[in-house]
Amino acid sequence: MSTVFSVREAVGPEDREACFTVRRDVFVVEQRVPQEIEYDRYDETAVHVLAVREDGLPLGTGRLLHGADAVGKTGGDASVGSLGRLAVAKAARGLGVGVALVRAIEDAARARGLKAVDLHAQTHALGFYERLGYEAYGPEFPDAGIPHRAMRRPL
């Protein structure tokens, strides 16, 4: 049985809370990322995307930083967006939710005139992003105690 879901830019406090709920479940509970570093000042200005099941249940989320907020994460290039906080609920993994979220974030980046998207991938997820056209660069580094690599995809 397939799960029907849709992905949209989050609008309003209910959508934002749904995004934060998925992030809490995946990062804070599953991966034990400290809550105080999971949520940050960028959440106020980021473009959040939300995947929801037909009945409204949130399945996944991600965010796009752009402009001045992205510069520190993209090597100083304001024409590159930063994809982050991509999270898919455990029960929704393997359904294509992650791919749909990445593509929605890329669409949001294109709509804002960005030429590429950077991200910091957990090393276990490198293959996922490589299949979507991202290329790793630079050395491995820790983030919240989890090994990561920087990746980029031109749009």
Task: Output the keywords.
5 helices; alpha+beta; 155 residues; Aminopeptidase; 31% helix; single chain; seven-stranded mixed β-sheet
Quick summary of this structure?
It holds the Pfam family Acetyltransf_10. This protein has helices spanning 12-30, 35-38, 68-71, 97-111, 126-131, and strands spanning 5-9, 47-53, 58-65, 80-88, 116-122, 135-143, 146-154.
Tell me what the structure shows:
Keywords: Acyltransferase, Transferase. The protein has helices at residues 12-30, 35-38, 68-71, 97-111, 126-131, and strands spanning 5-9, 47-53, 58-65, 80-88, 116-122, 135-143, 146-154. By secondary structure, it is of the alpha+beta class. It has a single domain (5-154), classed as Aminopeptidase. It has a seven-stranded mixed sheet, with helices on both faces. Strand 6 and strand 7 (146-154) form a beta hairpin. The relative contact order is 0.16.
